[in-house]
Amino acid sequence: MYFATGKRKRSIARIILQPGSGTITVNGLPFTQYFPRSASQYLLAQPFEVTQTVGQYDVRVNVRGGGIMGQASAVRHGISKALLEVSAPLRAPLKSAGLLTRDPREKERKKYGQKGARKRFQYSKR
User: Fold this and answer.
1) What is the predicted pLDDT for the residue at 67?
2) Which end of the chain, N or C, is more open, meaning fewer C-beta atoms within 10 Å of its C-beta?
3) Whole-angstrom Cα distance, residue 46 to residue 41?
4) What is the CATH number of the domain that holds 68?
5) Is 37 a member of any domain?
């Protein structure tokens, strides 16, 4: 068994990867049920397609925090890191596809005296 952690925005995904038939379980549910959108499902399958290891590993995921797409990206990041533990030569294709880099973009905080992070209240001269 191989363990890894993936992150994206406020989402954290704990990954357990083990040799098997290719089953992906997210929070006790099949990944197609937990992530109904095809874009999210594509994100989860991407590390396996890049490394040509589709159907070789069972994945158990525990993910929490953030939204659905942030969670899907966190799972993708975690699976990529777990595959790296399985075999070091997989680093080159994963790195070239950009799957090992944690996306650093975070939500910007709201500033005091303003309507939001960037938006200001309307200026009035008189």
Assistant:
1) 94
2) C
3) 9
4) 3.30.230.10
5) yes
Give how many domains the chain has, as a whole number.
1
Average confidence score pLDDT of the chain: 94
101 inside domain: no
Domain presence at residue 124: no
pLDDT-derived band at 53 (thresholds 50, 70, 90) equals very high
Segment (H or E) for 39:
helix 38-51
One-character DSSP codes across 49-98 = HHHT-TTSEEEEEEEESS-HHHHHHHHHHHHHHHHHHH-GGGHHHHHHTT
How many helices and strands (H and E) does the chain possess? 4, 5
User: What's the confidence (pLDDT) of residue 126?
Assistant: 85
Mean pLDDT on 87-105: 94
Q: How far apart are CA 113 and CA 123, in angstroms?
A: 12
Range of the domain at 80: 2-96
Does the pLDDT at position 121 exceed 90?
A: yes
